[in-house]
Write a structure and sequence with these properties.
Number of strands: 7
CATH topology: Rossmann fold
Strand content: 15-25%
Strand order of the largest sheet: 3-2-1-4-5-7-6
Structural class: alpha/beta
CATH superfamily: Vaccinia Virus protein VP39
Number of domains: 1
Length: about 260
């Protein structure tokens, strides 16, 4: 795998860590995959604080997706940059047609652990090359999850991808996390992704920039570390996490934006 693809092991470890502790994000599948893969993470990549953050972020995405799926029972689900994530199992397709999209070498690895069926499909493609959309149903609504993806795309690439998705579907709803520009600059020197060789990432401070030419409209910003999940930590860990990773400090580094076309 190239270095960007190797970053998928960081959230994989984080989710397995919190799942084993029985907090935030129960996920036996990711525990199984982490045990089988045994990828050698080091340094900040194996921080328990990062693991808690990764678990909370994914839980927020899951809850948003469940709510959107309940509101639109016929929408197509698209998880762009799925990595080895087991969101399709945590949330369930519930009759929706679901597509997980990632680079060919990631999907090849993913296929060792996940099986396609009539509702669930994997697409091996660089998401920025929007020809992959031709394989998806037309004249439908889409619910799109982009977790841990936007920071590896320049603004123009992100706009082109979202424009293509919106043009393909009747209506598109998107939830995506972004680095701030401050976080992107700081990442060159201090970021867990450095441990797998990635130093170039991109930030987005102004959510309305993704409205330009895409057909999307900004809906609102979501809390990345909501209190309901922080409260699953105990004692000093809870206090330290709230002080270092929660609230205003978190917003200085990360943002979570919702859009609709």
């Amino acid at each position: 795998m190239n270095n960007i693809n190797k970053t998928l092991y960081i959230p994989l470890y984080g989710k397995a860590y919190v799942s084993k502790k029985g907090i935030i994000l129960p996920d036996k599948k990711v525990e199984e995959i982490w045990a089988a893969e045994g990828f050698a993470l080091k340094g900040k990549s194996k921080s328990k604080w990062l693991a808690y953050y990764m678990g909370m972020r994914s839980a927020v995405f899951d809850n948003w997706l469940r709510a959107q799926m309940a509101d639109d029972e016929s929408a197509v689900i698209i998880h762009i940059g799925c990595g080895m994530d087991s969101r399709v199992l945590r949330v369930g397709t519930n009759g929706h047609v679901w597509f997980d999209v990632d680079f060919p070498e990631v999907i090849e690895e993913r296929s060792r652990f996940y099986q396609e069926d009539e509702c669930y499909h994997m697409i091996a493609s660089d998401a920025r090359k929007i020809e992959w959309l031709k394989a998806l149903p037309e004249n439908a609504n889409a619910i799109v999850v982009m977790e841990g993806v936007s920071m590896y795309m320049q603004l123009e690439e992100l706009q082109a991808l979202l424009k293509g998705v919106c043009a393909h579907f009747k209506q598109t709803k998107v939830l995506m996390d972004c680095y701030t520009t401050f976080a992107a600059k700081a990442s060159k020197y201090k970021n867990p992704i450095n441990d797998v060789g990635v130093t170039t990432v991109y930030g987005l401070d102004e959510p309305h920039l993704l409205e330009k030419g895409t057909g999307l409209h900004f809906v609102k910003e979501h809390e990345m570390t909501p209190e309901v999940f922080v409260n699953e930590l105990a004692g000093m860990e809870k206090a330290i996490f709230k002080r270092v990773f929660g609230g205003a400090i978190s917003k200085k580094m990360y943002r979570l934006y919702e859009y609709v076309s």
